[in-house]
Design brief:
Length: 299
């Protein structure tokens, strides 16, 4: 059956709405534009254009995947974050607007610094936080670290996409372990760690628990395992006066703040997201230490 772009859009929107997909109008446009190789605006301006049977089959297949619970970001293979577009696969978390607060907080610090700065993005996933931070500050050299080699492969593609291979690198690193001295010292460490309590994973929406990587979600019994480990084990990798910035889940900021305070962090600040939720906790290290020079290029 041959259909126009406009009729296909209306049918797709009805189907998504019927299956309780929030944002059905936008998602229908995204799916049709992706499958047909046109822009979302062209769904309106070229509404009378007929689509081939092959294109209609692709659209129907994508809609079926969405109805089954697969997130739109994985279907499209990319997602917008901080006014940028990043490649995503099922090996990485989908970038969310809440996490933009972490970039904004890091960017504020970088803008106050003169000259070059070293930034470590822990639990980097797609690399969206570190890459966005690098694009806000031309003097920032960023290391994207993750325990998943598959995630780092996605991050490297995003680094290449934004032509940042000269100052954004990747390294395989476990945020729950003490890092080797050879990674050097950093002016800023940013971390959006797994912070969902283990017992709550099963209660998450299907689109999250059945599709997004569990290792990027599970923060241990109380959701705080990574905060404890990173705060303690990575303190020696912060330069004197350097800052550690965490994203945290709803209602976790007081616990994260206390964990940092007990490990000697000072000048602790809280940043709220656009919904007014305490989303980022930042603490400063002022220990007098001899900084370890960056000893090797990491790719």
């Amino acid at each position: 059956m041959i259909m126009t772009v406009g009729d296909t859009y209306l049918q797709a929107r009805r189907t998504l709405k019927k299956n309780q997909i929030s944002g059905a109008e936008l998602e229908a446009k995204e799916i049709i534009a992706f499958a047909a190789g046109i822009s979302k605006d062209e769904i309106i301006t070229r509404g009378t254009m007929f689509l081939s049977e092959g294109t209609l089959c692709r659209i129907n297949a994508l809609i079926e995947r969405r109805i089954a619970g697969e997130p739109l970001a994985y279907i499209l293979g990319e997602w917008d974050f901080y006014s940028l577009t990043f490649k995503v696969t099922k090996d990485v978390l989908i970038p969310r607007p809440d996490t933009e607060t972490l970039v904004t907080a890091a960017a504020e610090i970088l803008q106050r610094m003169s000259g070059e700065a070293r930034v470590l993005d822990l639990c980097a996933g797609s690399g969206c936080v570190g890459i966005a931070a690098a694009l806000t500050a031309s003097g920032a050299h960023v290391v994207l670290a993750d325990i998943s080699e598959a995630a780092l492969a996605v991050a490297r593609e995003n680094v290449k996409q934004y032509s940042l291979t000269d100052r954004v690198y990747t390294i395989l690193l476990d945020a729950l372990e003490k890092p080797a001295d050879k990674i050097g010292d950093f002016d800023i460490i940013v971390c959006n760690p797994p912070y969902i309590p283990t017992g709550e994973i099963a209660t998450l929406d299907i689109s999250v628990k059945d599709y997004e990587p569990i290792t990027a979600l599970d923060g241990g019994y109380d959701g705080l395992d990574f905060y404890r480990s990173v705060t303690k084990n990575f303190a020696p990798r912060l330069k004197s006066g350097g800052r550690l910035l965490f994203e945290c889940g709803l209602g976790q900021f007081e616990d994260v703040k206390e964990i940092m305070r007990q490990e000697g962090y000072t000048n602790i600040k809280i940043y709220r997201d656009l919904s007014g939720i305490e989303r980022v906790v930042s603490g400063k290290i002022s220990k007098n230490r001899t900084n370890v020079a960056f000893s090797e290029r990491m790719v």
